[in-house]
Every structure is written in C-alpha cells, then in structure tokens.
Request: fold
Amino acid sequence: MCKHIARGQTLEQFTSESLNPNDLRHFKAILNEISDQPPENVLAYLRDKTAVTQMGIQKAMCQINQHIVQRANDDTCTDILVAMITNRADAEILVDALYFSEKRPLTFVTLDSTDVTKNRNQIVRAIRNYRLLENTEVLTLGIQHLGEIV
Reply:
C-alpha cells in the first residue's frame, strides 16, 4: 500500500483482490484507521505502521533462541541435492526438512518451479538411494509447488 501511495495513486485505486483473508482483514483495519486522515498524512502513517511492524518482527525473532527446525548439517546429502538443484541454500533447507520429517510426515511446499519442483522425483530418488531406503519404505518427505495446493 505504501508503494501504491508513494507512486501518487489513491487508496481507491488500490485493489485488494490478491490479498488472502487474513491480509484482507488487516487491510480493512488499516483503511479504517486512515480514512479520516488528510491524504498528505497517509503515506507517513503507513510508513510508521510498517516500521513498527518490522520492529515487532525483529523483536520476536531475537527472542527465538534456537532454530525452529534444527539444522541437519548433512553435507553429503546437501551436495547430492546441489547436483540437481544448483542452489545450495535450497538444498540445505530440503535436507533440514528431510531430517525434520523423520518424526512426522512432512510436505515441503515451495514456490521454486525451476529447480525443486521440476526435479522432485529425482530428489526423492536421490534421497532414497542416499538413505538406502527400499522402494516399499515410506519416505516421509513430500515436495509440492504451492500452486498445486491452492
């Protein structure tokens, strides 16, 4: 919304069609808060609101003493996946998800359609081979593109 107003567009020109229900609820609350403010104050108000929100997120992140998902630190498995998806950070996250999924079934959801989703069958096969799993054994990690879910 800040970018929209900073470009000189009005709030009436802002479309909320792409917002999910939670974001739409927040959007309506903000609209209600700024509806009685003069137009020249709206951008400053939204920037302040953004700064307060970002500070709250930073504060919350600083209070987390450990990773939500423990790092797997399995460099061999990561290297195997890097050969298929080229992005080491994505490979590390997949390996972390793999180890996290040992305790429960997990579907790894991604927006990456170029490496991860495209190569998911090869990734699962490589993980099975690395972990020495038989085809009848269940791999508790699934990979899906977000677009396949929504």
Q: What stands out?
A: The two ends are 24 Å apart (CA to CA).
